[in-house]
Amino acid sequence: MPDLEEKIVAAPHTHDTFLDSSELIINMGPQHPATHGVYRVRLHLDGEKVLDAESFIGYLHRGVEKLGEHGDYRHYGPILDRMDYVASVSNNLGYVEAVEKLLNVTVPPRAQYLRVILTELQRIASHLLWLGTHALDIGAMTIFMYCFREREHVLNIFEKYFGARLTTNAFRIGGLQFDTYEGFEAEVLAFCEDLPGRIADYEQILTENRIWIGRTRGVGVLTAEDAIAFGVTGPVLRASGVKFDIRKAFPYECYADLDFDVPIGEQGDTYDRYLVRMEEMRQSRRIVMQAVEKLPDGPIMGKVTRVIRPLAGEVYHAIEAPKGELGFFIVSDGTTTPYRTRIRPPSFVNLQALPKMVKGQLVADVIAIIGTLDIVLGEIDR
After folding, report:
1. Which residue from 67, 128, 175, 319 has the fewest beta carbons nearer than 10 Å?
2. H or E element in which residue 322 lies
3. With contact defined as beta carbons under 8 Å apart, do 161 and 178 qualify?
């Protein structure tokens, strides 16, 4: 049938082939090592240029919020350790403070100062892990080993105090479970004395490094207006020039009695976010040293009933976690179990800005931008 064969040969293509397509869609993750484990982003590309990005989450979902509604108030703390598992001290602090606000409990001054010392050490450890892995994603190997070396000192202190290195849990509703061990203050101060020289080493390697500058400066720019519109918080917001820190705006624990600065950036790019976090480590060290110096004597637990049964009501309380605003919303129905628990995790909210930050960048820049957000999927897929 020659006529039919001629028609088939002459028929135009009804679909685009790979080479004919002007837009290529690829998946980065969830198995990609630089997407932090279980995060998938679908990139729309024109060659190497990113046209758009779509986030896909939920691969690690564990129902952390719902678990809070199936146990009494004291049982929820250890579950929260597994959310942002590289800042578990901050997770515990935000939750116990929310319950304390619901109960109208006053925490003793000594417990407040110890909480601040431990959470600021956790901020330093979290930023060290961020810097090491972020630099490793971009191609800097040495800084990764340096940062983990200093982080080990913090984890050693945590191990002695909490009995755990990563998923720590010693904050209690009303105060603390443990007082300091012998030599605690000396170890903390020794770490603080050593830290400035270590940070200087990091900066000597990276800050003026032309490869580092080329991979970070002007990459992933987020203006102050866009940062506010997306609701980002923490170092990502401050690097865009917005001077907002919950420790200053709404002081909790003993932060009102301590002197520290809130670093901000100018360009809102990946390089500024690096500089802001470096300065935050210095400020956290400054806070810790003041808190150790002013550490008062006295009890470490306030007056809390054996059975925690808040009056019916609701509360929202937020703290300045290493990644931004970590908020807890709790609804009480007057029983020993929360009626509703909801969490505002900074990693989840900050991730909203990713499509805006990657548009117009190159594929390789996506890795740098994901890293600069400092996300943890345990917190996103709560």
Report:
1. 67
2. none
3. yes
Domain boundaries, the chain: 65-380
Alpha carbon distance 28, 369 (integer Å): 13
Output the pTM of the full model.
0.92
pLDDT tens, residue by residue, 31-62: 888 877 689 999 999 999 999 999 999 888 88
Q: Are 23 and 45 in contact (CB under 8 A)?
A: yes
d(CA 343, CA 67): 12
Residue 273 Cα distances to 60, 87, 209, 236, angstroms: 27, 19, 16, 6
CATH topology of domain 65-380: Cytochrome-c3 Hydrogenase; chain B (1.10.645)
- Residue 286 CA to residue 258 CA, distance in Å, equals 9
Name which of 135, 351, 345, 51 is nearest 222 in CA terms.
351
CA–CA separation, 138 and 115 (whole Å)? 34
Residue among 370, 380, 382 nearest 33 (CA): 370
Cβ-proximal residues to 205 (8 Å cutoff; 6+ apart), any chain? 140, 142, 143, 146
DSSP string, 148-168: HHHHHHHHHHHHHHHS-SSS-
Task: Answer for the pair 295, 110: CB distance below 8 angstroms, yes or no.
Answer: yes
Residue whose structure tokens are 């705006």:
249
Distance CA 131, CA 349 (A): 21
Lowest mean pLDDT among 58-62, 175-179, 265-269, 297-301: 58-62
Q: Distance (Å, rounded) from C-alpha 190 to C-alpha 244?
A: 30
β-partners of residue 260 are none
Q: 113 to each of 140, 306, 328, how far by Cα in Å?
A: 37, 24, 22
